[in-house]
Amino acid sequence: MKPVDLSSRDDGNRQATDERGTGAVVRRQHAHPPDGVRQSDPSSPGGPVTSAATARARVLAVVRSHWEAAPVQPAEQAVTDLLLVTSELVSNAIRHGGGLVGFEAVPTREGVRLVVHDRSPDVPSVAFGTGELPNRHDRGGFGWPLIIKLARDIVIEPHADGKAVSVLVPLG
Predict the structure, then answer these.
(1) Helical (H) or strand (E) element with 66
(2) DSSP assignment string, 67-93
(3) Average pLDDT over the chain, rounded to whole?
(4) Which helix (H) or strand (E) holds 104?
(5) DSSP state of 155
(6) pLDDT tops 60 at residue 31
(7) pLDDT by residue (tens digit) across 114-132?
(8) In the predicted model, what is the mean pLDDT of residues 89-113?
(9) Distances (CA, A) of 67 to 60, 79, 87, 109, 171
(10) Is the dihedral of CA 99, 165, 28, 122 positive or negative?
(11) What is the pLDDT of residue 125?
(12) Is the N end or the C end of the chain the one with fewer CB atoms within 10 Å?
């Protein structure tokens, strides 16, 4: 995949928008969104996240612990969407990003912010797509369109050792 050339921009940001007026933002330096993304506690139950399955388990634990006493529970479809986005991001890091090196799942007022760290600084060009599913049935290519449709506030932060892909999946 072709990396995004960030050197020509003074502000270090590039944003491409799809038909909904949203899109991925590429940041040159790591800057957490205002809703307080933080590293997951490495001693949290279930051990380290090393696969899509362990990431989904971590996300379910976060949802259960955060919303167990809430008066309104997230809809089952919203949680299913969250788990699908989790699987796609982690699988992309493993398959295309040189390996998964970090995973964060942080509850926010609006849903869950996922941050996946991998070893490749290359920004996937499909992250700037419209979210339209490909017309072919013989190959992959469905992951980023699904992520774009189900998540928002997509931020890709390349750095010397790889990149961080951050998305907010709404649960309301």
Answers:
(1) helix 52-67
(2) HTT-SSPPPHHHHHHHHHHHHHHHHHH
(3) 79
(4) strand 100-107
(5) E
(6) no
(7) 999 999 999 988 888 887 8
(8) 97
(9) 10, 12, 21, 11, 11
(10) positive
(11) 84
(12) C
The reported pTM is: 0.76
pLDDT at 127: 85
Rounded CA gap, 23 and 7, in Å?
20
DSSP 121-135: -PPPGGGGS--PPPS
Contacts with 7 (C-beta within 8 Å, 6 or more apart), sequence order: none
Provide the 8-state DSSP code for 64: H
Residue with token string 């986005």: 85
Task: With beta carbons less than 8 A apart as the criterion, state whether 63 and 92 touch.
Answer: no
For residue 116, give the amino acid letter: V
Separation CA 79–CA 132 (nearest Å): 22
* Cα separation, 125 vs 35, whole angstroms: 26
Strands 162-170 and 111-118 turn out to be: antiparallel
Is the separation of the CB atoms in 54 and 105 below 8 Å? no
